[in-house]
Write a structure and sequence with these properties.
Blueprint (H helix, E strand, L loop, with lengths): L1 E6 L4 H14 L5 E6 L10 H18 L5 E4 L7 H7 L4 E3 H10 L5 E5 L5 H10 L6 E6 L10 H4 L1 H15 L3 E4 L7 H5 L7 E2 L1 H15 L22 H8 L6
Parallel strand pairs: 1-2, 1-3, 3-4, 5-6, 5-7, 7-8
């Protein structure tokens, strides 16, 4: 299996964290292929930035989808996810959706714990987009600055553990997700210090990707996720324009 780990942020150091976490979770024989956005922002934190990142994610997928068996959009708010599922005929997994659905199999209600208050509104939109508002006990965010987004998990580890345990004792969370690409891999380091199961976002995404590859489900030819009809484009990146215009001659 070849799985693309697509980081729609521009931080190579965050991509390295994502890839390390993904490789640790991958089954023998699964090849992880990391890819960093060529333009955009160092880390997506707002709705506007998510729109930009989603468009870039579609461009990246258009260039690389034929060389992999599945793709993971490795930003916690899943930018571009539904559009990618329309356009492409391979499984596309959202890191947030995978971790939340996995959490739902471990408990009744999950909490998302993250490293910056700016992320809260976007993450709440993501929970609602996936129809999981009734299963979410809340989103807890640190409310202080950090030195480097690439190293925020080390800098704020103790505070994130404290926040996770408060989500359990005060919000009634049965499961905790440490959300946000810069926190990839942190769950495994701190799981014994949190009172309930902790889901690693990348591990969940990789295992869901492997499962969907093995299921070998067909691409929809009806319904809301069928490939849209061909349409002319102006000024769109070539690979994505080919896909939208059906010039790639694939189904």
């Amino acid at each position: 299996m070849r799985i693309l780990v697509l980081n729609p942020n521009t931080s190579e150091s965050i991509t390295a964290r994502l890839a390390a976490s993904a490789q640790k979770a991958a089954a023998p024989g699964t090849v992880i292929i990391p890819l960093t956005a060529p333009r955009g922002v160092p880390y997506i934190a707002t709705r506007a930035e998510a729109q930009i990142g989603g468009a870039i994610a579609l461009e990246m997928l258009a260039e690389h989808h034929r060389n992999v068996d599945a793709a993971i959009i490795a930003a916690f708010g899943d930018p571009g996810l539904f559009g990618a599922r329309e356009l492409f005929d391979l499984p596309v997994i959202g890191m947030a959706e995978a971790s939340m659905l996995t959490a739902c199999m471990l408990g009744r209600r999950f909490a998302v714990v993250t490293f910056a208050r700016a992320l809260g509104a976007w993450y709440q939109d993501c929970v609602d987009m996936h129809g999981l508002g009734g299963r979410c006990a809340g989103i807890r965010m640190l409310d202080e600055s950090f030195v480097s987004v690439s190293d925020v998990q080390e800098e704020k580890e103790e505070l994130l553990v404290e926040l996770a345990n408060r989500a359990v004792t005060e919000d009634g969370a049965d499961v905790v997700i440490l959300g946000g690409a810069p926190l990839a891999g942190l769950a495994d380091k701190v799981k014994d210090r949190i009172l309930v199961p902790v889901v690693d976002q990348m591990a969940a995404a990789v295992k869901q990707a492997e499962a969907l590859i093995a299921l070998d489900a067909r691409k929809a030819v009806a319904g809301t996720f069928r490939r849209p009809d061909a349409k002319p484009t102006i000024g769109i990146a070539d690979a994505l324009a080919f896909r939208i215009e059906h010039r790639d001659k694939s189904p």
